[in-house]
Amino acid sequence: KSIAFPYGGYYALRSGWDKRDQFLFFKASRPGVGHCEGNDILNIQLTSFGKDLLPRAGAVSYDHKDPFKPYFLHSFSANTVVVDGLSINTHPFQNKVATFHEPLDGRWHTSSAFDFTEGTYRHGYGKGNPSTTSYFTHQRQIFFVKPAGPWIIVVLMYRQNDHPQQTIRNLHPD
Predict the structure, then answer these.
(1) Which terminus in the chain has less CB density within 10 A, N or C?
(2) From CA 95, how far away is CA 155, in angstroms rounded?
C-alpha cells in the first residue's frame, strides 16, 4: 500500500486506499527547478480519518504580481523547518536541470507491520548568508505503525553554531 520513489525523493505511507485511511506524504526530494522550485524539502502532509490534519498551505500562483507568491515559495507554507526565520535555500540550484542516476541518500522500509523513511537536507537556509545558516543539516525520520497509526516523526537538526530554529505546522482550520 505504501510506496517510495527514491530517485525523486517522494514517499507515500498509507494504511489503505479508502477515504478514511491513514495517509502521510513525505517530500525528501532534491531542490527543484521551474515548476517544482518551492522550498518545501522534508515537507509532510497528513490525512487521517478523512480529514486533512497537516495540509500544505496552498498552491503557488503563476501570477508573478500575486503578493502572496513569495509566501508560497518559502518554507513557511510547508510543514518543515526554518532557521533564523529563513527559508530553505534552493537559490544555488535554480536553473540547474539534471538527470540523476542514483537514488537519494535515505532509508526506506515497508512491511505489513510498519513503514519507515528518512530524508536529509544539507543546503542551508536563506539566500547568500552561508556564514550563519549553511552549517545546518536537517533530517526527518518517519515511522508509521500499521494498520491504523500512529506516526512517529523525528526532527533532527545538526548545527555548528547556535541559531534559533522553528518547526512549521500548517494545521487545517477545521
Answers:
(1) C
(2) 29
